[in-house]
From TrEMBL:
It comes from Cerasicoccus arenae. Residues 164-258 form the Glycoside hydrolase family 2 immunoglobulin-like beta-sandwich domain. This is Beta-glucuronidase. Pfam families: Glyco_hydro_2 (PF00703), Glyco_hydro_2_C (PF02836), Glyco_hydro_2_N (PF02837). Residues 42-155 form the Glycosyl hydrolases family 2 sugar binding domain. GO terms for biological process: carbohydrate metabolic process. Keywords: Glycosidase, Hydrolase. One of its GO terms (molecular function) is hydrolase activity, hydrolyzing O-glycosyl compounds. It comes from the Bacteria.
Length: 567
């Protein structure tokens, strides 16, 4: 859950904002000349609305915010796609270049309470300025203020809470956790109250370190364990106190007591062997683009759990906090990953790429740290991990993730397998393979490629010195057009997809060397008509077990049968 506050004033800016669309360049546009002629909802991708389909350019948004004169304040943007420029009273206050990355914007001080907020969201590719998005990935990248915006008013001339992070420790069964309370303008000796589940816990320390953090370990008085079957949550709360012991700023977060481990070839959750069964999922619905309603998220999780899934990979970008909240509450394990899709040398050699990737990686961990559902961090899906030029960014990403969070596993999905040069870096080896689909033309029975390919992958990983690491299939699948059932049962039929997925699930899950399977993918999702993905019927990636309206294809029953049979 995004950290919540009761003492400081927070205001959601969801609602109708003034809007106009233009095709000028971001660098030549003049704020004063923008004629706002429409009103659209925030959050929402403008190009998912019927008025602006496939519009590439700048979505110009305007609203008014109210900040008491003299009060420090910031805006929390959960996602502005792709480049977001934020102006307050005409002053450029921030520019963010990853469309899925949450970011904070300080509101400049003013004597006026009423402030004009303008957001320019440019959804055109601009490799020079924004290498993380490169160009056409195999999923449509919408534009606009696609996730929530919140205004925070901070206490005047005092320290305030930047973040509260709870890490379950090896003694998690007895309720042992580490607490990191991160402060802005920390006082030398900070007074604060700390409680878990409403019970105040006396804390002796109060001396922030050089970065403004206070750390301590403590215990949950009445610990209950989090797992997919028992998604129990606890609540931690910190309150900063003034000289008179009065609380003036606070932060509240939810967390879960659980432990994920990789030992030898296996995964363990809370000490029990764990087999991952699940889906890759894009945050997408045709009527809403990437701003999926929470009810749809709820239904998606229920559809997956109803099929016997315990796992979802949030492909291929920061997850929406509302989705993660639901995974915490309903009990679905998550792989969350940083934006990346198939980039190669051009991107890795871009002078800004490493820094932009690092910034986005850090914001992902910062935002999602307390979700017990997340058991692994991922990054750079199918990106040049067979080439030396990618090594520095892969190494740095792993170091950063380990430094920020020692309690979760690290992985990336590779399509190279035999040629991959980064497998030494990860805790779990994750491979994307498409036997029976790509490269399966002119094969008499393409499904027969599945089992031998899995054997070959295992052989390659083991023989290269990684026999002691867990191995999973992170993508496998085939396209099926919803409703296309045909006696030939050939490519694109529901029958072919159902056969292939069933064979994949059986071949992986029946093999003790593999620790799980994550099918590509949950529901059909829009892609581009150009670039890498030319040739996708309907300009959708149709490998969903459900279509984009969540209507089940034949694969639904086939996979469900196998997954539920494993419990
Ligand atoms: C890759 C990629 C997915 C999707 C898939 C496919 O493995 O990671 O995003 O593009 O291929 O359908 O080909």
């Amino acid at each position: 859950m995004n950290t919540t506050h009761t003492l400081r004033s927070t205001t959601s800016l969801s609602g109708l904002w003034d809007f106009t669309f233009c095709r000028e360049s971001l660098n030549s546009i003049t704020l004063a000349d923008i004629a706002f002629n429409d009103r659209i909802p925030v959050p929402m991708a403008f190009d998912a609305l019927p008025m602006y389909p496939k519009h590439r350019g700048i979505g110009c948004y305007r609203t008014t915010i109210s900040v008491p004169a003299g009060s420090p304040a910031y805006l929390m943007f959960e996602a502005v796609s792709m480049t977001g420029r934020i102006y307050i009273d005409g002053q450029l206050c921030a520019e963010n270049k990853c469309g899925y990355e949450p970011f904070k914007v300080t509101v400049p001080m003013s004597d006026n309470a009423s402030r004009e907020l303008i957001v320019l969201a440019d959804n055109r590719f601009d490799f020079g300025a924004r290498p993380m998005h490169e160009e056409y990935f195999d999923f449509y990248q919408y534009g606009g203020i696609t996730r929530g915006v919140t205004l925070h008013i901070l206490p005047v001339e005092r320290s305030s809470i930047r973040g509260l992070y709870i890490t379950p420790l090896p003694g998690y069964r007895e309720g042992e956790v580490r607490v990191d309370l991160d402060l802005d303008n920390a006082a030398a000796k900070q007074r604060f109250n700390f409680s878990i589940d409403g019970e105040t816990i006396p804390v002796e320390v109060g001396q922030p370190d050089a970065t403004g953090k206070i750390h301590f370990t403590t215990k949950v008085a009445d610990p209950t364990i989090w797992s997919p079957a028992t998604p129990n949550l606890h609540i931690a709360r910190a309150e900063l106190l003034d000289e008179n012991e009065a609380a003036y700023d606070d932060a509240q977060v939810r967390f879960g007591l659980r432990r994920i481990e990789a030992r030898g070839q296996n995964l363990f959750l809370n000490g029990e062997p764990l087999e991952l069964r699940g889906y890759n999922r894009h945050e997408f619905h045709p009527n809403f683009g990437p701003t999926t309603p929470e009810l749809q998220m709820f239904q998606d999780i229920h559809l997956m759990k109803g099929m016997g899934c315990n796992f979802v990979r949030g492909s291929h970008y920061h997850q929406d906090q509302r989705f993660l909240d639901l995974c915490d509450e309903l009990g679905l394990l998550v792989w969350e990953e940083n934006l990346g899709w198939g980039q190669r040398e051009k991107t890795f050699k871009h002078p800004d790429f490493a820094a932009q990737h690092d910034k986005a990686l850090r914001s992902m961990v910062d935002m999602s740290f307390n979700h017990p559902s997340i058991i692994m961090w991922g990054f750079l899906n199918e990106c040049g991990s067979n080439e030396d030029y990618a090594r520095p960014v892969f190494e740095e990403s792993v170091q950063t993730l380990r430094a920020l969070d020692s309690s979760r596993l690290i992985t990336f999905a590779t399509m190279f397998v035999e040629g991959d040069k980064m497998l030494d870096l990860v805790d779990i080896i994750s491979i994307n393979i498409y036997p029976g689909w790509y490269g399966a033309l002119d094969v008499e029975d393409p499904v027969s490629q599945v089992a031998p390919r899995i054997e070959a992958v295992i052989e390659s990983v083991n023989s290269r010195g990684f026999a002691d690491k867990p191995l999973m299939v992170s993508e496998i699948g085939a396209e099926a057009l919803y409703g296309w059932r045909d006696a030939h049962e050939d490519f694109f039929t529901e029958q072919y997809q159902a056969r292939l997925l069933a064979e994949a699930c059986r071949s992986v899950l029946d093999n003790p060397r593999m620790c799980g399977i994550c099918l590509w993918h949950f529901s059909d999702a829009r892609t581009y008509s150009a670039g890498y993905s030319i040739g996708r019927p309907r300009t959708f990636n149709n490998k969903g077990t459900f279509d984009e309206y969540r209507r089940p294809k034949l694969a639904h029953a086939a996979v469900k049968d196998i997954f539920l049979g494993r419990d």
